[in-house]
Design a protein that fits this description.
Blueprint: E1 2-7, H1 11-20, E2 27-33, H2 37-46, E3 50-52, H3 55-59, E4 66-69, H4 76-84, E5 90-92, H5 100-113, E6 117-119, H6 127-138, E7 144-152, H7 155-158, H8 176-191, E8 194-205, E9 211-220, E10 225-231, E11 237-244, E12 247-252, E13 256-261, E14 267-270, H9 276-288, H10 298-317, E15 321-322, H11 324-335
Parallel strand pairs: 1-2, 1-4, 2-3, 4-5, 5-6, 7-10
Antiparallel strand pairs: 7-11, 8-9, 8-15, 9-10, 11-12, 12-13, 13-14
Helix pairs in contact: 4-5, 5-10, 8-10
């Protein structure tokens, strides 16, 4: 049994513990850290957690073998570095960082320490999404041409008067950080690295209790295209549909998948429900114990944050933006004297049109 600490006992930290404690034979939480211990004391008592107020307290706890971070996004990189400096495996809730450079620092620290890195991309573990990935990997539908994805929920309407969802530094580009990032991760998992982003935000009502939409046009490194959308305040919708040379496959919700092959009627199946958080935490346990790599690779984590950063930059600038990894290839082509297109890259300064709404 791996004994773990949870840093951050807000809604999501509590959700992870609730999915695991007493239900997993692989992981048990023994220590919780909260900056507001008076709000977390009853929860900690119910789940048998030692409660403290600082990451350093958990790192000094000899019983803690792994650390989970469910903390403000701006703290993630330095906290990953602090955990790995003690030689412990670390799980970081999404996003790993707010820039690709920050993500590279976190991944570099993990690699230097030789420990596993987990990330909270639990939507990959939906029964529908695991089967969708299996269908694509089987090759029965051919080559991917286009991916569409939408994830909306009502969380931002339930957390009124503060919190990271209302903070543009912690949650840029409307619903990107809270919901859209899960779809972006699905795109990276299914379609591979993303080359270019063109994103728009329409926000008739700012936080608190926002009403806004983020829409993103994606170009993959493969040449395939994608469309992503998230409405920050809407009844829950999860949909990912992949169009291929031989048909399409669509995941709706956590458990339902439809496959349509050329010349055949669509076939819809509903799969047994699983707790996606529990599945992902136990996959992290496999990585800690050396049984299997964590299902989200470090390269995918970097590609995801590179695309995330490009979405934020595209919204700010009102124009398409190359992802950081694509920009590096572009600069290499320039050094080699090859033609390049004139698309700005994430991290490069340019004008910000006054008509763009965040």
């Amino acid at each position: 049994m791996i004994q773990a600490a949870m840093i951050g006992l807000g809604r999501w930290g509590q959700s992870i513990i609730g999915a695991v404690q007493g239900k997993s034979a692989r992981v048990r939480f023994v220590h919780g850290v909260s900056k507001e211990p008076e709000l977390a004391r009853d929860f900690a008592a119910r789940h048998g957690l030692r409660l403290s107020t600082d990451l350093a307290d958990a790192l000094a706890d000899p019983e803690v073998q792994a650390v989970f971070l469910a903390t403000p996004h701006l703290l993630h990189v330095q906290q990953v570095q602090a955990v790995t400096a003690t030689g412990r495996p670390v799980w970081c809730e999404k996003p790993l960082a707010l820039t690709r450079a920050g993500a590279e620092s976190a991944v570099g620290a993990v690699r230097a320490a030789g420990v596993p890195l987990g990330s909270g991309n639990n939507k990959r573990c939906f029964a529908s999404m695991r089967e969708l990935k299996r269908v694509l990997d089987s090759g029965v539908l051919g080559e991917i041409l286009h991916i569409e994805g939408h994830f909306s929920n009502e969380h931002s309407t339930r957390v009124i008067g503060g919190g990271w969802r209302d903070d543009p530094e912690e949650s840029p580009a409307a619903g990107l950080t809270g919901a859209g990032l899960h779809v972006l991760d699905a795109f990276v998992n299914l379609g591979g690295p993303i080359r270019r982003i063109d994103a728009k935000v329409f926000a008739p009502k700012p936080p608190p209790d926002p009403r806004d939409v983020l829409a993103v046009l994606v170009e993959f490194a493969s040449g395939a295209t994608g469309l992503l959308a998230t409405v920050r305040a809407a009844p829950v919708v999860w949909r990912v549909q992949v169009f291929c040379t031989g048909g399409w496959v669509e995941a709706r919700g956590e458990d339902t998948l439809t496959v349509a092959r050329m010349g055949e009627s669509p076939v819809t199946q509903t799969f047994p429900h699983v707790d996606s958080l529990l599945v992902l935490v136990e996959a992290f346990a496999d990585a800690i114990e050396g049984k299997a790599p964590f299902p989200v690779t470090p390269a995918q984590m970097l590609d995801l944050i590179g695309a995330f950063e490009a979405v934020v930059m595209s919204v700010e600038r009102g124009q398409p933006v190359l992802c950081a990894n694509a920009q590096r290839r572009r600069e290499a082509r320039r050094r080699d004297g090859l033609a390049v297109t004139g698309v700005p890259a994430a991290g490069k300064s340019t004008h910000r049109p006054s008509g763009n709404t965040r």
